[in-house]
Amino acid sequence: WGIAGDDIEELGVKLGEGSFGVVSKVVDRVTNRLLAIKHLPLKPDPEFRTGIARELRFMFRCQSPFIVKFLGAYFVDGMVTFCMEYMTAGSLRDVYLAGGAMDQKAIKLVAKSVLEALHYLQSRDIMHRDIKPDNILCGFNGEVKVSDLGISVHLSDETGAAAAVGTLNYVAPESIGAGDGAADHPHAADIWALGITLVELAVGRYPYPLEDVDEVETRNGPRTRGIPPPSLDAFGHLDYLESGTPRLPAARFSPACRAFVSLMLERDPQRRPTPGDLLRHEFLYDLDLPSLHRHMAKVVQRACPAKFDELLADKAEHPRRYAP
Ligand code: ATP
Ligand code: MG
Predict the structure, then answer these.
(1) In angstroms, how far is CA 314 from the centroid of its own chain?
(2) Is residue 218 exposed (0-12), middle (13-18) or buried (19+ Cβ within 10 Å)?
(3) Measured in angstroms, how far is the CA atom of residue 224 from the centroid of ligand 2?
(4) Is the CB of 94 under 6 A from ligand 1?
(5) Which amino acids does the record list as binding ATP (predicted)?
(6) What's the whole-model pTM score?
(7) Nearest Cα residue to 140 out of 198, 87, 101
(8) φ and ψ at 59, to 5 degrees?
(9) Which of 20, 194, 309, 312 is the most buried (most CB within 10 A)?
(10) Does the CB atom of residue 91 touch ligand 1 within 6 A?
(11) Digit-coded pLDDT (tens) for 92-114
């Protein structure tokens, strides 16, 4: 699968830990470049292995500047190891927890990048199904990319694609029984999850339980540290959804930006716009991607200064690891 286990040199650096496995930073001995690898335990059942093999085949085919590059995988001792592009600043969750509420330009770049990724996936009949700040990675150069296509499925391969999977916090109303249309508009669930994610990044807190964001920010200013999201059961999540729809604070976000995010949080999946529709929204007119990347670079460097210094030191010591 593109890479052999022997080619990987462990550096003993753990980048994070998800619900299924650990992610670490390693060097590919063949190219001398940095990679991130994710170890997952394999279920002994052969059907699961076939499932993974199919998954890998399509991950290999997903090539987009807005999707974390999948580089290969290998199986050792009942574990599967995925190799992917190393994203120097980690996830947007890491960034907002450290740096607090993000501004409109950062939100614009995240929206544009994730929508381009979803648009690309949708053209191949793929849903992501796990859009959340943890699965959007970013580099100190300001690049933002979607990762973890792991639980996404090929709609044509699988029935029940619209069933609720993934972290409950980002599950759309229709997928949890608070509305109809899940089966007819499966892709709409990714857009809901993006809407919640954008509000979370913009206010520095998972937006439920609802708060009066305007009042909170008038009193204290925008959060300078993020608050980690609660973990919810299905009933808690339903109660939250029924309590209303989150929105962006009016003082820091333009009417076009607020309208754009509200469209993603439209309850009726049939009326929720597609990635293509949203990419044509006036909020994203005339955007200058390089300038948004430069802005995001400053945002992440300010949020995670120690990690950035570490990167600069490592770059000085091992320039080849970072050669383009
Ligand atoms: P889930 O298991 O539901 O996907 P998660 O996204 O938190 O949850 P992982 O995908 O295992 O879990 O990732 C854990 C953390 O590791 C991420 O939040 C991120 O900080 C870091 N990470 C993951 N992939 C990379 C990568 N390619 N480059 C740099 N850091 C990464
Ligand atoms: Mg993940």
Answers:
(1) 26
(2) exposed
(3) 24
(4) yes
(5) 43
(6) 0.92
(7) 87
(8) -65, -35
(9) 194
(10) yes
(11) 999 999 999 999 999 999 999 99
| Average pLDDT rounded to a whole number, residues 7-22 | 81
> Residue 21 is encoded by which pair of tokens?
């496995």
CA of 18, closest atom in ligand 1: 12
Backbone φ and ψ for 284, nearest 5 degrees, come out as: -100, 5
Summarize pLDDT for 257-303 with one digit per residue, the tens: 999 999 999 999 999 999 999 999 999 998 999 999 999 999 999 99
pLDDT of residue 158: 40
Give the span between the Cα atoms of 285 and 283, in whole angstroms. 6
CB-count exposure of residue 30 (10 Å: 0-12, 13-18, 19+): exposed
> Which H/E stretch holds residue 106?
helix 104-123
Residue closest by Cα to atom 11 of ligand 1: 18
Nearest CA-CA partner of 87 in 266, 316, 296, 317: 296
pLDDT at 107: 98
From 130, 134, 148, 190, active-site residue: 130
Ligand 1 contact, 175 CB (< 6 A): no
Torsional sign, CA 220, 222, 227, 229: positive
Asked about 77 being catalytic, the answer comes back as no
Residue 288, SS3 per DSSP:
coil
Say yes or no to pLDDT of 194 above 60: yes
Separation of CA 79 and ligand 2 centre (Å): 17
pLDDT of 6 over the 90 cut: no
What is the ipTM metric for this complex? 0.95
List alpha helices for 124-254, DSSP H. 188-203, 213-220, 234-242
Q: Report the nearest-CA residue for atom 27 of ligand 1.
A: 86
| CB 249, CB 214: distance < 8 Å | yes
Which H or E run contains 107?
helix 104-123
Q: How far is the CA of 190 from the centre of ligand 2 (A)?
A: 15
